[in-house]
Amino acid sequence: MSEAVSSLGGMSETSTGAPDDVNAPLDDPRWTVQWADGPVPDQRRLRPLIGHGGPVRAVATAIVDGRPVAVSGSRDNTVRVWDLATGGQLHDPVTGRTDPVSSMTAEVLSVATAVADGRPVAFSLHGDDAVLVWDLATGRAAGEFVRLVESDVLDGRRVLLALGADGTLHVGDLLTGRRVAAFPSAAGLAVLDGRRVVLTVDDVDVERTVRVRDLGTGEQLARSLEVVRTVEIDGRVLAVTAGEPDPEVWDLATGEPVETSSAAAALSGGVDRPGVTTVTVVTGRAVAVGLDGEEPRFIGPLALARQNGALVRTRARETAVLDGRTVALTAEADGTLRIWDVTDDRQRVNGMRVIVAVAVGASGEAPALRSGPEQDGDLWHRISGRGDGPSDGGGPVLLTVEQDDTVVVRDRATGKPVGPPLTGHTGKVWDVATTVVDGRPVAVTAGADHTLRTWDLTHTHEDGPARTGHTGTVSAITTAVLDGSPVVVTAAADRSLRVRDLTTGQPVADPVTGLEGEVTAMVASVVDGRPVVVTAGSGDTLHLLDPVGGEHLGEPVTSHQGRVLALAGATLDGRPVVVTAGADRTAAIWDLATGRPVGEPLTGHTSRVTAVATAELAGRPVAVTGSWDKTVRLWDLTTGRQIGGPLTGHTDWVTSVATALVDGRPVAVSRSRDKTVRLWDLATMRETGEPLTGHTDPNGPMVVTVAGARPVLAIGQGQAVRFWDLATGREAGNEYALPLPAAALGAAPDGRLVVAFGPEVTVLCPAAG
């Protein structure tokens, strides 16, 4: 039986080395499914886009600097931009506004993309009714949709008045597009003594103070007076304000001041009418009163203006009609007020509607804007998630979500399916979009499983046989040779151990059931001619199991190392042993025939030992360990002593290690939370080549296998497996996408790779492609 060890939770592969022709040219392997324990991953799905922390509810596509990208909106309240060629994120995620009172961030409802003046932009609709604009090249905010209030002439300039989602009234010069002024918390418009004024409400205090400002200059025209008492006398409601040197009294029906002599009477008589907190006075007249905890009330000369000229605080049109065209307004980050034509459906760039800015004549005369209905097929429909369907390049098609949550490509004319369903999502599909990647039409689907999936719409493939297996997540995996046939051994959250023939995919024996707790590490060996599987779980106990007979071999072995974090098998003086990595900062050697430790613990690490692998160096068995102390160390298993000093270079915890032969020399591979993978020559104790970068998931599984007669490092990277040629440091072949994150990897004979993901197991074979 092989000494191969799965890489899970820091457990790594013990390599048997590479053939003599290791320097032969490397074929470009295309990893394909040989058989699967459950549904075969759909080969049309190119790669997962992982990063959202909640269900993805909207997707759109665009071209940025010649690269196809996807824009996604999620219930985690973020908008993210993805490079469809690599699957990586182009920018940091962006969000809508956060309410300062509730500290809640507005959720993302839908997204859309367009080309504006030659630059790709994205629009996102949020739960607070805001429509934000993002520059896809930089990932920065480029503005927001604003609601048109009116077009007017102000101090000789033609201006547009628009209301932002946050309640800010924007005043923009229609000729230059520049913002003239901005008034936060705008509540209404009026004409006062021949001047256009805007009323704002300060929401930061309990009194909700009303302020009146000149619309053109921003000058504050009003003064706010504190009300000390409100009374009703002879049918009139009077407010008494604190004033110097004497209090002032205001008639709250007319806004007129009351004779000062009545102040004493008001203070001494009448019926109290509480609730009024402030009075706003402009040019000697009261125009508004603040109410305790409620919206202010306008009185006197502004009462009529309140009815005819007040701003609409509820949802309003984001579009208007200009010269018969539906347009939208945005206030950009630099203060520019832009007008967008959102009805031009004749020009398209890469399947996206072209949007251009509207030019205004040099005379400054501009036609009046009037509120108008949104047109069918315009940008607002697309932002609201009611856009046109996709095309596969050869004719219009529809992507439909079926009752079983699969996505089906249908011919738009006939309604018939085009190819088999796009299976793979494990939850409801929320949205779909289409684009072109490397000349191929693809679809991007968003599901409630928190992932995006990219599908090749023209590729066809055959599903492998569906096979029953574990009913829980596969938590550990290893490979072996049983009676001359390669097998895979899996342990799962259903507390069972299963053995399956890698050639036929059939079970070899009945499962071993009744395991105690979850298996987090596992290694296979041979003791006295019989196969043995050693497992470790969440504690410090090792279990020895007969995978064929379904028996437990002897009593559990207590390591006294705290939690056993990793295992590796080896042969020491002809005896099968297992090396354990412990949370107590030590490693230990165990004789599998007796269940007893060999020698003293291996000490030297200054933090918990998270990974271990074994190999041969100059004919002697050695172990390689990785630790939270950021070092890799080499141990002579015969003497129990450390060889040389620690291998340093990682800047964060080492999470896994593996060993291999490269050009006939034993090497170690280490992976760290610093997102790098490093290669070490064990003979010289030096690092070889540059670190492999871009590994954002440091805790994924890692194992050494063979492809094209060369040692290849396979790394689980979320919902994908990546391959690296250890001799050249370059990626070897295609990334292989999975429907769920890779939980464990095992190297089988003939270069096959066993992948455990969720409750499923798949065997991959490299083939020249």
Topology summary:
Layout: E1 29-36, E2 45-49, E3 56-64, E4 67-74, E5 78-83, E6 94-95, E7 108-116, E8 119-126, E9 131-135, E10 140-154, E11 157-163, E12 169-173, E13 179-183, E14 186-192, E15 195-201, E16 210-214, E17 222-233, E18 236-241, E19 248-251, E20 257-258, H1 262-268, E21 271-272, E22 276-282, E23 285-291, E24 297-298, H2 303-309, E25 319-322, E26 325-331, E27 337-341, E28 348-349, E29 352-355, E30 370-371, H3 379-383, E31 397-401, E32 407-411, E33 429-437, E34 440-447, E35 452-456, E36 474-482, E37 485-492, E38 496-501, E39 512-513, E40 521-527, E41 530-536, E42 541-546, E43 551-552, E44 557-558, E45 564-572, E46 575-582, E47 587-591, E48 596-597, E49 609-617, E50 620-627, E51 632-636, E52 641-647, E53 654-662, E54 665-672, E55 676-681, E56 686-693, E57 702-707, E58 710-716, E59 720-725, E60 736-737, E61 742-747, E62 753-757, E63 760-768
Parallel strand pairs: 7-29
Antiparallel strand pairs: 1-63, 2-35, 3-4, 4-5, 5-6, 7-8, 8-9, 9-10, 10-11, 10-26, 11-12, 12-13, 14-15, 15-16, 17-18, 17-21, 17-22, 18-19, 19-20, 22-23, 23-24, 25-26, 25-30, 26-27, 28-29, 31-32, 33-34, 34-35, 36-37, 37-38, 38-39, 40-41, 41-42, 42-43, 42-44, 45-46, 46-47, 47-48, 49-50, 50-51, ...
